[in-house]
Design brief:
The protein has 431 residues and is an alpha/beta fold. Strand 7 and strand 8 form a beta hairpin. Helix 12 packs antiparallel against helix 15 and helix 20 crosses helix 21. The longest helix is centred in the first third of the chain and has 15 residues. It is elongated.
Amino acid sequence: MKDFIAELRWRGMIQDMMPGTEEQLKKEITTAYVGIDPTADSLHIGHLCGIMMLRHFQRCGHKPIALVGGATGMIGDPSGKSAERNLLDEATLRHNQECIKSQLGRFLDFNSDAPNAAELVNNYDWMKDFTFLDFARNVGKLITVNYMMAKDSVKKRFNGEFNAGMSFTEFTYQLLQGYDYVYLNRNKNCKLQMGGSDQWGNITTGTELIRRMGGGDAFALTCPLITKADGGKFGKTESGNIWLDRRYTSPYRFYQFWMNVSDADAEKYIKIFTNIEEEECMSLIEEHRAAPHLRLLQKRLAKDVTIMVHSETDYNAAVEASGILFGNATADALKKLDETTLLDVFDGVPHFEIARAEIEQGIPMLSLLAEKTAVFPSKGEARKMVQAGGVSVNKVKVTAQEQTFSTADLINDKYLVVQKGKKNYFLIIAK
């Protein structure tokens, strides 16, 4: 077995750790779990740190359990939240669980015959028949209200930081999560719970419950909450979360997110979100510092994470798509783009709409670019730029001023991409 704690240390992935954790992991193959909130049918990159902890855990020879919080997801974790969450029904939770397991399969080996094969469990399976009276008698009586009130996640809600209060439902969350640890400790010989640093209070409630219920050894480990160098929230963009499911975030947009991180963040993220070993990682960082303009860290980070989450084919397509705006991509490369990626690539460029009927019979290039759209302020300006060889449509240089365009020229039967000069792009949409 590899030294898991040493692995996390150099990667900067340890915030808090209960005494005895390191000794336990050196002693034997150990089972650990991370809880995942199933409130959506896709994980996003905010989940990646916990998932990578499980991945490194398995790579070091230990057994990972991913716990989907079907029961706790019906309540909502108050940690770091300013308002209570919407509750989900069982059918939605089951659907979300299946989607999440499929995504986790890209990070963890669930199908191995090895003793450290990963498992997926759902706490709804052991909580659904647990009556309120039994829970109150067997669990609730063991933890005092004073103990629960001392947790940061609770104090913040009561002391006015969020000024929202807390329902009894949410107040019970740490007992429910704590009981998950009790159940896994008894039934799966699970001796470690891991999570983000905001989960420390919930995790230690679990270790306390195990102790008071006469359970076996139980340890806790958390990683720091991932932040950006500028203080912004990691994984959040103007358009929202960066999801692992291509339905919500295309592989191209996913790839671009990692390509656009700052140098300081790239140095941190390359350690956390890849499998690159320490020596190679430090060498990459030194190379990058010597020539930051080459963006070696961002390129390697974007490559490794995109392949891990999507595929090498998707990575290659994202690189090719990036070349359309930032390189010398060909017309063939442009035509190969699916509609989602094309719209992502040209998300920030001016868009113009024209009626499809106007292009069906063929529309003169000068009329299209200077009258039907505002690519050029006048036909005269358009003529000058064409004569200078500075106009391309769908990555093909326009050489004749009398050229016309029809539906046969449309990409995905809907789009024309106009390039004026080297850097000015426009997207014309036929509707």
